Amino acid sequence: MKKIILLLGVLCISVVSKAQDVKTTCNNINNLNTAILNGSIKRRDAAVQFKTLIEQLKKTGDKTQPSGWLFPLKGYKSSAIGGTNGNGYSDKGYNFLDGNKHAAHPAHDIFINDRNQDCLDDRTHQPVDVLAVDDGIVIACANEWEPVSNLRGGKFIWIYHPAQNIFTYYAHNQAIFVKPGDEVKQGQKIAVVGRTGYNAYKKRSPTHLHFSAFKLVDDLPVPYNPYLQLKKAKTL
Ligand SMILES: [Zn+2]
C-alpha cells in the first residue's frame, strides 16, 4: 500500500512539474516574441533562443491525432475571407525575425459585419467569438494594446499545435481570454474580434480577424497558405 501511495505521489509530482515546465517554456517564448517585436534582440540570438525553446516544447507536447480545423470565427464561414479565392495572402519577403517591421501579409483577413465599427456583429449586436482552430497550447500573446502603439498585431495570440507541428496566429482582437502556457481545445473561445493594431485601428480598415498559419522550418516559424484548410473547416 505504501509503495502504491509513493508511486502515485511521484506520478503526481511528475505531472505537476511537466505542466510547470510547459508554462515556463511558453512564458520564455512569449518574452522572446515580445523582444523580437520590439527589435530589442539580435536576429541571430533570437533564432538560437527560439530553436532551443521550441525543442523543449516539442518534447512536452501531447501528440493527439490531427483532425480537420474548425473555422476561427463563430457564426462565419470561409466566404468571410477577404480577397478573391484567398488572394489576400502573400508571404514573399516575410521573415518572423523581422518582428513588427516584417514585410508582406502572410495571412487571411476574415471580415465581420460591422459597418459602424463598434466591434459588434451588425446582425446579432454581440461580439464575435474567435475560436481555436485545433487543440494546442498558447505560446505567446499580448493582452494590452493602446492606440498610440505602433505594434501592428494589437492584442494577438499564438498557438502551437503539437499534432501537426504548426502554429496559428490570431491578431487585432478586442479582448483575449488566454495566456502563455494555457492548453486550448478546438473550438474554445480564445478572444473576441476587435480593431487593435496600428493599421486595424484606422477608420479605413473594416473590422476583421487577421489569421495566419506557420510551419516549422529548421525550428523557426515560416508562414504557409492555410486557405484550403480554412475552406474545408467545420463551422460553429
Ligand atoms: Zn491582415
CATH superfamily heading: Glucose Permease (Domain IIA)
In CATH, the topology is named: Glucose Permease (Domain IIA)
Distance between the termini: 49 Å
Strand content: 15-25%
How would you summarize this macromolecular structure in one to three sentences?
This protein has 236 residues and is of the alpha+beta class.
Q: What does this protein structure show overall?
A:
This protein is 26% helix and 22% strand. It has 236 residues and is α+β, with helices and mostly antiparallel strands. The protein has a single domain, classed as Distorted Sandwich (Glucose Permease (Domain IIA)). A hairpin with a 2-residue loop joins strand 8 (208-217) and strand 9. Helix 1 packs antiparallel against helix 2 (43-60). The mean pLDDT is 93. Zinc ion is lined by residues 105, 107, 109, 210. The site of zinc ion (ZN) has 4 residues, from loops.
Secondary structure blueprint with pairings:
Blueprint: H1 2-38, H2 43-60, E1 108-111, E2 129-131, E3 136-141, E4 155-161, E5 166-176, E6 183-184, E7 189-193, E8 208-217, E9 220-224, H3 227-232
Helix pairs in contact: 1-2
The protein binds zinc ion (ZN).
